[in-house]
Amino acid sequence: MTTNARNAVARRAENVGQVQQAGEQPAQPDLASFVNSMGGELARAVPKHLTGDRIARIALTSLRTTRHLPECTLESFAGALMSCAQLGLEPGGPAGEAYLLPFFNRKKGVYEVQLVIGYQGMVKLFWQSPMARHLDAQAVKENDHFEYEYGLNPKLEHRPARGNRGQTIAYYAVATMTNGGAGFVVMFPNDIEEIRKRSKAKDDGPWLTDYDAMAKKTCIRQLFKTLPKSSELARAVAHDETVRIDRSLDAIDAAPEWIPGETVERPELTAGATGEPTE
Questions:
Q1: Phi, psi (degrees; rounded to nearest 5) at 130
Q2: pLDDT tens-digit profile of 155-183?
Q3: Do 33 and 17 form a contact (C-beta atoms < 8 A)?
Q4: Cα(181)–Cα(200) distance, rounded to whole angstroms?
């Protein structure tokens, strides 16, 4: 690697508080210590059913198990944790409520943490609304009985087949409210794929490990556009798959930041004709 290329790597590393040579392991303890130092802030932000210590413990586990997460900027990591705390969602773990995923921001030249809210997280926030009465999301198989109609007389019928149900042909979400309102959304695999491809997390995280759950979440998100939402649910929809770099309590109501042109993996640095790295 040329001197210019090494300098470019160093400049990027400064954004996460350290200079790393190629091939070295990131300094996870620094970020881990930073998470521990946030205990007081998290405690002030979490709702009664959750504790700041629990969010910090789960986040530390994610640091040990998620590649590139320790290399993310402190600001984006803190912002993601504060969003989880204020929404009352666990950032990882078996609940599948939210995920902290590292993405390389090409514009800034650093890794940043993107908060991806999971299917269970969306469901949990829906049920916290006093207007919530019923919510369901299902995958439809080719041998199921399935009929639906939109329009003035909407209809949705789904009877799963017994035995071999076959391949998935559609997904849907349906909800009813205590005021009598109701709605449903039907999406086909091509619809889901179009949205997945636009997602910042399309090839990593829950889209890779829990595709059906993310497909159902996609239907729920589309459905929520037509339903009255609690403030917590509206915030969750706004901050899903975004980067938050302001960890102040009132930043949850500000417009979050989208990552331009990011990839999960940092592009390899190669020396160009001028000696500067190219991606």
A1: -65, -15
A2: 999 999 999 999 999 999 999 999 888 89
A3: no
A4: 33
